[in-house]
Amino acid sequence: MAHHGWGGRPPASDAEARQRIVDATARCIGRHGVRKTTLSDVAGELGVTRQTVYRHFARISDIVGEVAAQGAESFVDRLVAHLQGIGDPAEAVVEGMMFCVRTIPTEPRLSLLLQLDDSSAFGRGATTADAIAYGAQMLQRFPVDWEDAGIGADDLNGLAEMIMRLLTSLLQHPSEPPHDDAELRALLDRWLAPALRRPSVAVQGAGR
């Protein structure tokens, strides 16, 4: 690995080099915006050549994706902490959706996902197998006994897909005029929450 540039402080490893590239990209995006940030900007921020950046990332979109991914890790930790004490599946999912819709646009690194093309996590990438699997893993971290609620591992994949599709729509195409918190919560309570609740004994008996 070449040690030229880097502000006179060459990285000690490839991992450190990649992280410094990611951090430099985040700074450039803060100044120029995601669509105007180029590999040349990142290289200039670090005092290295474009070729040095290319050794670690093939495209600027790959670096931006890593910037967003690192923000996502911290975000999920805070989401799970926010849900502590909510053991009901329907309540946890609705509250989690509310947290995501209101928080993601305000998170500098996470909001990048809303500005990328359709391959991003909140574009067509939201329905890839990897994105759905990640969503299911996130749901497993909720303070919910999914098995006791009658929701198995395969169900979590389906639930994760529906959540990702709904989040994509809510984030990319908000209602006009926008829903306030009470209106959005009422919408989710009416149309999403019932799918996560067991039918009552009375309803089960009536269907026989």
UniProtKB/TrEMBL annotation:
Presence of keyword Transcription: yes
Concerning PROSITE patterns, the annotation shows: HTH_TETR_2
Residue intervals of the HTH tetR-type domain: 15-75
Stored Pfam families: TetR_N (PF00440)
The cross-references to SUPFAM superfamilies, in alphabetical order and at most eight, read:
Homeodomain-like
Q: Tell me which InterPro entries the record gives.
A: Homeodomain-like_sf (IPR009057), HTH-type_TetR-like_transc_reg (IPR050109), HTH_TetR (IPR001647)
Q: Which residues bind DNA?
A: 38-57
Q: Which UniProt keywords apply?
A: DNA-binding, Transcription, Transcription regulation
Which superkingdom, per the lineage?
Answer: Bacteria
What PANTHER family does the annotation carry?
Answer: HTH-TYPE TRANSCRIPTIONAL REGULATOR RUTR, MYCOFACTOCIN BIOSYNTHESIS TRANSCRIPTIONAL REGULATOR MFTR-RELATED
Provide the protein name.
TetR/AcrR family transcriptional regulator
Source species, please? Answer: Actinomadura napierensis
